[in-house]
Amino acid sequence: MVNSIVEIAGLRVVRGGRVVLAGLDLDIGPGVTGLLGPSGCGKSTLLRSIVGVQRVAAGTVTVLGRPAGSRPLRDRVGYQTQSSSVYDDLTVAENLRFFARVLGLPPAVAEEALAAVDLGSHRDAVVGRLSGGQRSRVGLAVALLGTPALLVLDEPTVGLDPVLRRDLWALFHRIAAAGTAVLVSSHVMDEAERCDALLLMREGRIIAHGPPAEIKAAQGVDDIESAFLGLVEGGPA
Ligand SMILES: Nc1ncnc2c1ncn2[C@@H]1O[C@H](COP(=O)(O)OP(=O)(O)OP(=O)(O)O)[C@@H](O)[C@H]1O
């Protein structure tokens, strides 16, 4: 596909003796792409494969034209895991400066990331005393250090109230508009409408890929949850 950020061919992953991804083929383009599917379907495993931290049994994962996880991608791919990896006892600015140093980036990028997630006014707050939404934005800022070409976010809105979730999605779109492709997973189907493109996943397979409107139209339904059920039950495609 022209403009592909991620190209995956024949990806097979086995975890704990169980086949989690059984030969997955997929291209992901720019904009905000949502990876949606029920708990345990393999979303995190797919994201881990894209950032290059997952042992794969077979297949290839190419990111920005390079093998996933290879050295040239180190500061071109940002990754926010489900469990926050920021330090609770450091301030927001201290966390960002620390991770910038680890990545070998100048301190100025810490300021840019802080501004990008709108946390300038909380720069001197200790992370352990922030709200869930603010903490999530600190994690996002860490993933944004150095302005990566691809940002991979594993369930960044889990546990947040609807207002914070809406604000975070608006932020993802601002980040994408500035040129960073955003791949974000969720098991909340109502977040689907906020994506430019959707990947619907079930039991380690991608069962639909495209703009939300196209997926709904193909199933003849008005919401993504119904489209998902239609696809699972073998409705029109
Ligand atoms: N460390 C692990 N060792 C062995 N199996 C694992 C491990 N982590 C996950 N799995 C298995 O791999 C499968 C896919 O898990 P994965 O975390 O990718 O799903 P997910 O869709 O991201 O789920 P969730 O939405 O709950 O985070 C699950 O069946 C899970 O039991």
UniProtKB/TrEMBL annotation:
Sequence ranges assigned to domain ABC transporter in this UniProt record: 6-228
Give the matching SMART domains: AAA (SM00382)
**InterPro entries in UniProt:** AAA+_ATPase, ABC_transporter-like_ATP-bd, ABC_transporter-like_CS, P-loop_NTPase
Protein name in the entry: ABC transporter ATP-binding protein
Any one GO MF term held by the record is: ATP binding
Q: Does the keyword ATP-binding apply?
A: yes
Q: What superkingdom does the record give?
A: Bacteria
Coiled-coil annotation: which residues?
none
Alphabetical keyword list = ATP-binding, Nucleotide-binding
Matching Pfam families: ABC_tran (PF00005)
Please indicate if the UniProt record lists Transcription regulation as a keyword.
no
